Amino acid sequence: MTEESAGEETFISHLVELRDRLIKATYGIVLACIVLMVWPGPARIYDFLAAPMLAALPAGSKMIATGVVSPFLVPMKITLLIAFIVALPWVFYQVWAFVAPGLYAHEKRLVLPLVISSSVLFIAGVAFCYFFVFGRVFHFIGNFSPNSIAVMPDIENYLDFVMSMCLAFGATFEVPVVVVILVRMGIVSVEKLRSIRPYAIVGAFVIAAVVTPPDAVSQLALAIPMCLLFELGLIMAPIFVRVSQAPEEHA
């Protein structure tokens, strides 16, 4: 077998492995979706997600559906989003399992902590957005609404807003994991990251301004945790580096 054909076979085997991991991750999401559709059901899930918006509306107000199939499709989409969040540990495990064969034994010790921390941080970001940010943002916006306007949010617009906000907060809460990976791979040192701290803070506020509504409440609610999580990453990175060092690196 020539070197070229061996390399081609290796590339194909990697593609097959990637396909298998993607299929397994999809199975996990589908299974979680089926369970959520049985209990508590798409309607109850949507009612739960809409609670912060309804709490900010005048008593007795409801959201509206302008599309014919919106009352069916929107709860289904919300259920799929929740299923993805529920299955996230399994999805992250499939990602790390795909990468793991290329790692040394001492590096593989990072897989489980990173899978757990990535899942916990993403879910924490989504929970922070739902329980802390939504209520304050909706009340803040409602206070600026003139009395001559009847606020009746459309469920599809609300879905887009909720999905973008939850994914934004979930992704930005992964900052410590990103810092740890960058430091462990030797792309950047902890000292370098500390030296660019002012730029990281400015960057956090810029990101918050881009991905959140144009109000100070939601922007601060995202920027401040990002700055704190960046500091957490600087604390945890040296610990992970020491734990994952090869035996000869200790010498």
UniProtKB/TrEMBL annotation:
InterPro entries per the UniProt record, alphabetical: TatC
Ranges annotated as spanning the membrane: 22-41, 78-99, 111-141, 161-183, 195-214, 220-241
Protein's cellular compartments: Cell membrane; Membrane
Database matches in Pfam families: TatC (PF00902)
Principal place of residence: membrane
Annotated membrane topology: Multi-pass membrane protein
Keywords: Cell membrane, Membrane, Protein transport, Translocation, Transmembrane, Transmembrane helix, Transport
Purpose: Part of the twin-arginine translocation (Tat) system that transports large folded proteins containing a characteristic twin-arginine motif in their signal peptide across membranes. Together with TatB, TatC is part of a receptor directly interacting with Tat signal peptides.
UniProt subunit comment: The Tat system comprises two distinct complexes: a TatABC complex, containing multiple copies of TatA, TatB and TatC subunits, and a separate TatA complex, containing only TatA subunits. Substrates initially bind to the TatABC complex, which probably triggers association of the separate TatA complex to form the active translocon.
Family: Belongs to the TatC family.
Protein's name according to its UniProt entry: Sec-independent protein translocase protein TatC
